[in-house]
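Homework-ish question, so no full write-ups if that breaks the rules, but can someone show me the predicted structure for this set?
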Amino acid sequence: MSSDRDSILSRVRSALAPLPERAALPDWERELVIMRNARGAVDAVALFSERLVLVNGTPLTSAADLVALLEKNGWRRGYCDPALWPGLQAAFPATFTVETLFDRSRVDDYQFGITAAAGGIAETGTVILTDGGTSRRLAALAPWVHVAVLSRRTIFVDVPEAVAALGSDPNIIWCTGPSKTADVEGILIEGVHGPGIQVALLVD
Amino acid sequence: MKFQQIDQFAANLRADTRESVHSGSKAGHEKRTSVLFDHYADPNRLRQIAGEIKQHVVENLDTYLPAVEARLQANGVIVHWASTAEAANEAVYSILQARGAKKMVKAKTMVSEETELGHFLEKRGIECVETDLGEFIIQIDGDHPSHIVKPIIHKNRREIATSFERHGLGAYNDDPETITRRARAHLRHKYLEADVGLTGANFVVAESGRIVLVTNEGNSRFCLAATKCHIAMIGIEKILPRDRDLGLLLNLLARSGTGQQLTVYTEFIRGPKAAPQEDGPEETHVVFVDNGRSEVLASDCREILRCIRCGACLNVCPVYRQASGHAYRSVYPGPVGAVLSPLLAGKQFPELADLPKASSLCGACNEVCPVNIPIPDLLLRLREKGKREGSEAAAAATPPMGAWSVMATQPAAWKLAMFGGKIMNVLPAKYIPVPALQAWQAKRTLPAWRGGAFRSWLRTRAQPAADVRSAKSEG
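A: Not a homework solution, just the prediction itself:
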């Protein structure tokens, strides 16, 4: 393997040696990627909700609305991050079965998974999950419904701002709407491997 | 004279396949264009800067590669290097062996298509399951992808439903939603049983060692949530200098590839999971794959190494739309493939030397490229290379340029040819023994011959033209 390393690096060096000069790294202004309709003063929370709807996500503003959505569809079995459950439990009637441990041998038993989002991106309707902040990667992915509990104070305006804040978490994932595919004849189908319903529950 | 192989393939393509490919790629292109121009005041400026960033990386790989290796190692990633496709497959296999792994789930990666990793591992008794819906269908069909982003653009729902039925995934049902649900139910257990998850990478950032992966289906995330070991196979050109460059490249990639603002799942991996997180890999490996890239770097076509595999040039290409991806006889179809495939073929270059000719040089591929690769220029350079190396494939369907040069330099020969051309108006093409003419007429109709008309027109208007000239010089 180390010989492959050396031979690759040596081939790369000799390929580049004849170049009289190397292309410089350009700098670019953030202005370049600011979307037309996002210029000027932006209400990040309102924009986030608007954009989440555009990618077929579901912004909600209260635990009662969440429970209503789940009840309406008969989704009564799920998982909730143990740190979030004390704050939400009161809104859930006794007809619900909510576990605070996620058992991977029963992934299909969970119709919904409630986890914390580390942030959001307004212009794209994205929720940001981190290893440090999201209790279980699987609980945010395998159930049909993922509910990301998102603080309004952690919503970035745009992609460059969110990139600048990536930090050192070993794994960060940006989720922009439900899992989807258009592989079959270009027809949009949601809920391929991940959630078919992506909820952002906005809290203070 | 022989037909070009792509022409021949296109001529024999089933009508419904051509329709699937044509409508799919056209829709992709239209969405890409409306989204980019709706969203940005100057999308061409974005493409230009992104191209400069990637060109900088390509021309400084000698410093970026050791830098990114050091950064990855500092993040706890185990780095491997592979000169060839076999070495890359061996590297993956030895990681699996060291863990006693028997089952692997795999997200879509073009580089593993290059190395034919799936076949390699299956021969060694490893279950290797493709998890991207399109790639999964390709796998159960024993087929090959025909598009970089939409691998089954050439298939319709009826073919897919038949494959699912044959593979024991339920009775025939060609409803796309039913097909997708069945794949969901089947594949989620594959993830959970697997020992290792393998992915590619869309970018790896030198500054931070972040591996960036994008998928819409969430399949790469499932690989990284369910398994305990992650292997990323990465072409050596996939580097970006700084995290902040992601703000530009991610915006361009999603819009160019699928017309989205952002791909649904954009994952940034710095290394193995950290407590208290329970899910995810305890071990992260990167296999840097050369497989001909360093030779491309040494060639005069190194700009093609900027490519971020968005597929926009396929969608816009009039040749791709007619011929479909399989016509390119290689992993990378379309305009990017016409450049990259012959170059990556190394010693087998002559066999693919006809691909650079499968273009009208209309330049649309360059205009849509998010990293502004001058594909038409590169195609011309490769045509020259094919000619210089005397490739038979490159010579196929070349018009008789020697005869042309005699005609164009000898007035008597020219007049004779102009007169001869009139024969075409009375005699059907199949009776005229000029191979180029016959090849052309097989699929198209020539307009009526009007040879010599320009000269006679010029003679009759010679006087007024002279008047204009003298009037000008007096003024």
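Now go work out the reasoning yourself. Hint: Chain B has a mean pLDDT of 93.
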